[in-house]
């Protein structure tokens, strides 16, 4: 009985991931000229540019990735259990694409200090860029990307166009499919 319940949960999670990604794909707009695209946070919009200071002291600009690599942006709080789950889902995807895409995780909780964020990063083996809510440039990023709650994920292509936006927990399968679509285009 227990195995049947576990199997149903796994099948249900897989079906939900497929449905969520398919819904995102249905809402995707056709190819967009980046220069004429509206700036915003919807799929097909040109992603708002930003300049922030990451936890390691690096200056990160969206414009640094344009023409080079897609960027995944996600929001967390270090104490949030679903954020931990999502980071665990993203870690294997990051390892698969780390040479071809970048990840940026932004803590939206002002009480998350650098030590808490670094512990989150190290404990979950998520070696990508992290930013603190009150670091230089981050409040503007939070507003521009509407990062006002946890588990928001964006995938921005090499041209600076948002190709995937999810406001729920994103599974590894969903993120992998979104990145595959961006990397193969």
Structural class designation: alpha/beta
Largest sheet: 5 strands, mixed
CATH architecture: 3-Layer(aba) Sandwich
In quaternary terms, these chains amount to single chain
What is the level 1 CATH name? Alpha Beta
- Radius of gyration over alpha carbons? 16 Å
Distance between the termini: 44 Å
* Average pLDDT figure: 85
* Number of structural domains: 1
What proportion of the residues form beta strands (DSSP E)?
15-25%
Order of helices and strands: HEEEHEHEHEEH
* DSSP summary, beta strand count: 7
Using the coordinates shown, work out and report the CATH topology. Answer: Glutaredoxin
Strand order of the largest sheet: 5-4-3-6-7
- Helical percent range? 25-40%
CATH superfamily: Glutaredoxin
Large-scale geometry: globular
């Amino acid at each position: 009985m227990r195995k049947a319940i576990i199997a149903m949960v796994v099948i249900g999670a897989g079906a939900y991931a497929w449905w969520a990604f398919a819904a995102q794909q249905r809402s995707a707009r056709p190819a967009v000229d980046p220069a004429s695209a509206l700036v915003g946070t919807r799929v097909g919009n040109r992603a708002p540019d930003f300049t922030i200071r990451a936890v390691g002291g690096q200056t990160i600009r969206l414009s640094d990735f344009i023409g080079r690599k897609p960027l995944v942006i996600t929001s967390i709080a270090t104490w949030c259990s679903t954020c931990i789950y999502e980071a665990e889902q993203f870690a294997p995807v990051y390892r698969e694409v780390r040479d071809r895409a970048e990840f940026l995780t932004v803590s939206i909780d002002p009480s998350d200090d650098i030590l808490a964020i670094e512990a989150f990063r190290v404990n979950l083996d998520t070696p990508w860029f992290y930013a603190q809510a009150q670091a230089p440039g981050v409040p503007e990023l939070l507003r521009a990307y509407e990062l006002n709650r946890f588990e928001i994920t964006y995938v921005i292509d090499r041209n600076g166009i948002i190709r995937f936006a999810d406001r729920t927990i994103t599974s590894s399968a969903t993120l992998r499919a979104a990145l595959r679509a961006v990397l193969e285009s």
